[in-house]
Amino acid sequence: MSLRHAVLGILAQKPVTGFELLSEFDISRSVIWPAPQNEVYRVLRVLKQEGLAREVARGARGSRTYAITDAGREALRAWLMAPSDYSLRYEPMLKAVFLSEVGGEDRRERAKADLAFFEEQLAILKIRGEAVQRSPDAPGKRVDAWRMAISFYQAMAEWARAAAAGDR
Amino acid sequence: MSLRHAVLGILAQKPVTGFELLSEFDISRSVIWPAPQNEVYRVLRVLKQEGLAREVARGARGSRTYAITDAGREALRAWLMAPSDYSLRYEPMLKAVFLSEVGGEDRRERAKADLAFFEEQLAILKIRGEAVQRSPDAPGKRVDAWRMAISFYQAMAEWARAAAAGDR
DNA sequence: ATATCACATGTGACTGATCACATGTCGAGG
DNA sequence: CCTCGACATGTGATCAGTCACATGTGATAT
């Protein structure tokens, strides 16, 4: 997995410029990790070179609009259906592994900070969810990601609530 | 976040050799991602050089046992309590974002494959959980990680079950 | 004796991610 | 007219992670 796939996926929905791509990453930061700005442009160039995307237009301020090619669509589909890499890199989970190394007070503090974030994400996702419901076939109706993210943050919040309360 | 912290955390529980560290990573692969073999040895050398770990013994077959130093403990604690990086890199979630790009049949197939994995992990975690319950203060009583992982995989399985059944 | 396997550590090359910095354009408002 | 902020793309250095490969030891069984 890498940025490549995320970029290819967004490209599959509509042609975009690097700049627009960046804001896509920013908007969906609850689900997709934040992309380093320069890497997006590099990925776009590589994708083009590999024939998975092509440059379809030049706009103002030197902007380049990229679109997915047939080969790109095929590559995306192949990746989606290929066996997944289930390895999880999530800092809060890694911290949980070693949380026994700090005292009870610190542990609760850690869990509280986590809980605040998880609840914030849930609130954001719920607001976005209403928009999804209103327009069922909206641009990129990402129902699966939305549901998975809701499930995920609910699970995380559940853990954090118990730990913040001091449950052992 | 990086391997550094995972290695430091394990070191905080007991002195280990690189080889033992590798098997730790292997054992807890439901929670910590698999560590590339050579990287573990590199991290150990770096940690030593930075004064966060020290070499405490040489054993058979050139094995080197490392232990955490006071500075290492302090660094671990600082990391644990520092604001977390909540960005999530998880291939199944990224795939979910773009799952609308494939047909209903493919989507169910994808979800089924995921479900099988999530349920397997839950089974593994439950078996390990019984051991945790029996020895409440066992070596590295990682209750937090265990609970978080259970919550996590239950959430994932819940999503996958719905998607595999074809829910829209 | 010696073959084999588990133990144990390492190097070199490469790729992808990240950081810091650099450059230029277009439109709106003072 | 000029400044400022949003738009838009890029380079170079560095680092962590990954892949492929290399090397050697000690115990055990045949």
Features:
homodimer; 168 residues; mainly alpha; Arc Repressor Mutant, subunit A; 2 domains; 7 helices; 63% helix; 8% strand; DNA-binding
What do you see in this structure?
2 copies of one chain form a homodimer. In chain A, strands 1-3-2 form a 3-stranded antiparallel beta sheet. The first copy, chain A, folds into 2 domains: 3-81, Orthogonal Bundle (Arc Repressor Mutant, subunit A), CATH 1.10.10.10; 91-164. In chain A, helix 1 packs across helix 3 and helix 1 packs across helix 4 (70-81). The first copy, chain A, has 168 residues and is mainly alpha-helical. The longest helix of chain A has 31 residues, at 104-134. Chain A starts with a helix and ends with a helix. Chain A is built from 7 helices and 3 strands; from the N terminus they run αβααββαααα. The interface between A and B is large, with 65 and 65 residues. Chain A binds a DNA duplex (30 and 30 nucleotides) through helix 2 and helix 3.
The number of helical elements of chain A comes to: 7
- Would you identify the CATH H-level superfamily of the largest domain in chain A? Winged helix-like DNA-binding domain superfamily/Winged helix DNA-binding domain
Largest sheet of chain A: 3 strands, antiparallel
CATH topology assignment of the largest domain in chain A: Arc Repressor Mutant, subunit A
Structural class of chain A: mainly alpha
Helix and strand element order of chain A: HEHHEEHHHH
Instruction: Compute the number of structural domains of chain A.
Output: 2
Residues in helices of chain A, as a percent range: 55-70%
* Quaternary assembly: homodimer
Instruction: Work out the largest interface and the residue count of each chain.
Output: A-B, 65 and 65 residues
- CATH C-level class of the largest domain in chain A is Mainly Alpha
Shape of chain A: elongated
Number of beta-strand segments of chain A:
3
Main sheet of chain A: which strands, in order across?
1-3-2
CATH-defined architecture of the largest domain in chain A: Orthogonal Bundle
